[in-house]
Amino acid sequence: MRHGIIAAGHDKTAAAAEIILKDGGNAFDAAIAAFFASFITEPCMSSPGGGAFANIFTADRKALFLDCFCQTPQKKLPLHQIDFKPMVVNFGETTETFHLGMGSIAVPGVIAGIYYIHRNFASIPLKNLLEPALQLAREGVIINNFQHFDIRVLKAIMTNCQESKAIFYPDGKALAVGKSLKMPGMADYLEFLIASGEREFYEGEFAKQLVKDSIEKGGFIRMKDLKSYQVRTSAPLRFKYKDRTIHTNPLPSIGGTLIGLIMRKLEQRQIHDYSAGSPQHVQALQQITEEVFSIDRTVTNLNKKWGSTSHFNIVDKKGNAINITMSNGEGCGYMVPGTNIMLNNMLGEASLLPNGLHSWTADTRLSSMMSPTIVLDALGQFQTAIGTGGGSRIPSMIAQVLHYLIDFNLPVKAAVDAPRLHNEHNELNLEPGFVGKHRADDRLNIINWDQKAMFFGGVHSIHRQGELIQASGDDRREGFACIV
User: E strands, 329-444, where?
Assistant: First the structure.
C-alpha cells in the first residue's frame, strides 16, 4: 500500500478517508474525515448528536482508548414532565420496542471526540478534513439497500419532526434505493462549527437552541450538562490470546470484557482442532456463547437489540492504526432546527439501562457493548483492526471473526464472510452453513436464517498476514474496503 488501508460501513465513508490519505494525511486525519462523512452516508447510525469509542495504536506503539460515548444528564425530572414514547419496529424476523422523544436524549460526545483526536494526533487543519463531508452533504449520497432499510423501519423516528421528514421522507415515502440524500443544513452547521471551535457545540448557538427546546419540550438536557462533557481516556483493556495481544474497550463498558471471556474459552477448549463449520465446531461455539451470555452481568442486563451502530478501521503507511465504533441509538426524532443534526435516544435504549428505563444514574457515562478492537502480533506490532455494530451481539461477532483469523488462519475476506451464530436468552440464531449442525436443546428457540443478515453485525476488518495487509467490508451491512 502506498498510503494506507480502510474498511468502513459505506463506500463514501471510505472515500473521504482515501482523499485525506492521498493528500498526505495520517490515519487519524483520515479517521476524522471518515467520521464527518459518516454523518451523511450513514445517518441512521452516525451523528454529531451521538456517541463513540476510538481505539488508537500509533506507529511508535503507544496505545490509547477514547470514550466519547454519551453521558447522562446531571438532574432527573418527574416523568410526567418528560417527552418519552415507545415505538415498535418490525424487522421481519423479529420486532423491537425503542423509545424516542426529548426525554431520551443523553449528552452527546462525538464532537468532543473528533476535536480530541485532532488536537492530539492529526496533522491537517480541521477545515480540510471536513471538505469531503461538505461535498457529500450538499451534492448528495446515493441511498443503498442498507440505508433504505434503516430509513424505512425507523419511519416513526425519521418523520417525528418536520426537518427530518423533509430529508428522509420528502414525498411521504422513504427515500428509495438510488435516490440522492442531501443534508445542506448539516454542511452549513459543520462549517460554522469548525470556524467557531469546539465550544460552539457545547456552549454556543447549537447548545442554546438544544437546551431551549429541551426545557420547553420535555427533555433533561441543560447547559451545565453540555459544558461539563469531557472525553475520557484510558489504556485499552488488554488480554492475551495465544501469542497475540488484544486491545479493546475497558470497563465500565462491558463489550470488551465479554470478548475476552469468549476468547479465553475458545483457547481453553482448543476448538480450532475441529474443521471450521463442522457440527463439532458449531456445537462448541454454541456452548461457549451460551455460557458467556448467560453469566450474571452486573454492569448491564442486555435485551436483544438490533444495533443502529457503525464502525470503521484505518491504518496508514507508517503503521498508525485507529478504529472507531459510533452510534446514535436509533435517534430521538428531534433535530436541532436548521442543522439537520438528530440527537441520540440513549436514555431510551433498554440495552444500556441495567434496571429498566428511567433507572439511569445522573451524571454518569453510559456503558455499551461497542468494542473497537486492535490485535498485536507476538512482536507487539499491529496485526488486526476489527469492530462491528449489532447491539448485544457485538462481542460474539467480533470474537468469531478473530477466531477464524487467528485459529484457522483464514484470509480476512473469508473470515468476515464465514457463517456466524448467536446464542442468548434461550434463542439460537444460525446463519447458513451452520444450520442443522447445532446441539439439540429443548430450551432453545432455533432461528435458521436463509441468508447472511445484518442481525449478525457488520464486522469491517483490516488484517495483516506476514507482509500482506488486506481489508474487508462486511456485506451484511454493505461495508466497503480499499487499499490506497
Answer: 335-336, 341-342, 373-376, 382-387, 421-424, 427-430
Tell me the angle at which helices 126-139 and 184-196 cross, rounded to the nearest 10 degrees: 170
User: Does some domain include residue 414?
Assistant: no
Residues contacting residue 203 through CB under 8 Å, at least 6 positions apart: 223, 226, 227
Sheet holding 232-234, edge to edge: 232-234, 63-68, 51-57, 321-327, 309-316, 4-8, 480-483
Residue 225 neighbours by CB under 8 Å, 6+ apart: 71, 73, 74, 107
pTM for this predicted structure:
0.95
Q: What residue ranges in 403-467 does DSSP mark as E strands? A: 421-424, 427-430, 445-448, 460-465
Residue 309 among the catalytic residues? yes
Q: Name residues whose C-beta falls within 8 Å of residue 466's C-beta, 6 or more positions apart in sequence.
A: none
Residue 33, domain extent? 4-234+308-352
Predicted confidence pLDDT, tens digits, the chain (484 residues): 899 999 999 999 999 999 999 999 999 999 999 999 999 999 999 999 999 999 999 999 999 999 999 999 999 999 999 999 998 876 665 667 889 999 999 999 999 999 999 999 999 999 999 999 999 999 999 999 999 999 998 998 999 999 999 999 999 999 999 999 999 999 999 999 999 999 999 999 999 999 999 999 999 999 999 999 999 999 999 999 999 999 999 988 889 999 999 999 999 988 878 899 999 999 999 999 999 987 654 444 434 444 568 999 999 999 999 999 999 999 999 999 999 999 999 999 877 887 888 999 999 999 899 999 999 999 999 999 999 987 888 999 999 999 999 999 999 999 999 999 999 889 999 999 999 999 999 889 999 999 998 889 999 999 999 889 999 999 999 999 999 9
Q: Which of 72, 248, 257, 309 is catalytic?
A: 309
Q: Is the Cα torsion angle 408, 414, 415, 421 positive or negative in sign? A: negative
Any domain includes 92: yes
Please give the tally of structural domains in the chain: 1
Whether 455 is covered by a domain: the verdict is: no
Q: Does 382 fall in a domain?
A: no
